[in-house]
Amino acid sequence: MKGKTLVALHYLVKRIDPSFTPHVMEYPLPPNFKMLQLETLDATKDPLHHLENYKALIHLQAVPNEIACKVFPTTLKGSTKVWFKKLKPSSMDSFAELSPPKIAFLFLVRRNLPLDFLWGAFFKNGDAAKFSIYIHSEPGFVFDETTTSSAFFYGRQLNNTIQVVWGESSMIEAERLLLEKALDDPANQRFVLLSDSCIPLYDFSYIYNAVMPSPKSFVDSFIDVKEHRYDPKMSPTIPEEKWRKGSQWVTLIRRHAELIVDDDSIFPVFSEFCKAFGLGSMFPWLTIQNHRNCIPDEHYVQTLLAMSGLEDELERRALTYTLWNQSAMRKETKSWHPIVFHYEDASPQEIKKIKVSCYAMFSPVSRSFKH
């Protein structure tokens, strides 16, 4: 009986014009392969819904990618079959390529997400097949019904978080951990780094349609000539002419995210020679123990991409709006951090001004701003 099942499956596969490559279609079926229970698949409605159901079932058999691809066309009928036939023939060799590309939202937070109610509304109105959520919080902190008001964040924290100290390399190490985890999902094609103070300025569809078509990363990056943060001890690994500065809040294409995670030469130099000592921006040239005052998260990604010769692949602007000119709003203590917007600042006029002035998609607001 098992032999007849395999013959029938081979026949079904052969009858369908494959969108997968010959490598996939010629991959042999294992002798112990079990046909899926097709009656449990609703293959007459939304193709992506059917795809997710299929992925859940095929995963239980622990088969390789090639088998998952090869068997998938045999489950199609109705609208899903029409959808599949419209795909380019012999164009895919990975099952992940059938899924819509996703944006990975990477939250780098101190502890909880004080603005989770806003993000919950944002994700609720989005397409769940088009985004992923990852959170780096303090070690041991868990996002569940007792710590967040939005189910979108349940269990989304990393399991290997570290204690992050502002102005030290632990900040960029946490960013790398977020990227590493998000890269596990091949459908994640854009990576947006966010803080616990950020809010979206547009709905999900607008952001997805603006970010996804761009072949470039959105990285604020420029030559740092004023603040004297480059330490000559970084040479020759990091030459001064490749030293860059910019906003920490970047939006990356997958190739650049992989580069950051795979880096094993630039990061150690930053860990040793780029540290902040809290001396204030009035004295950026002062040194302590032969180190210059340096803020790693404002230089690492920009410098690494410059070192890799990839600056032509950047839109040199951030998608997160930050305001450093403190005289423009209220007089507050001068610090290393941008202005935090409070409730009274969040007028429609102010938000419109932010959107028009810099094409930002996210903005920081006060951590004390509650629903």
TrEMBL record:
Signal peptide: none annotated. The keyword S-adenosyl-L-methionine does not apply. InterPro entries: BC10-like, Glyco_trans_14. It is a single-pass type II membrane protein. It is found in: Membrane. One of its GO terms (cellular component) is membrane. GO terms for molecular function: glycosyltransferase activity. The keyword Glycoprotein applies. It holds the Pfam family Branch. Keywords: Glycoprotein, Glycosyltransferase, Membrane, Transferase. Its main location: membrane. This is Uncharacterized protein.
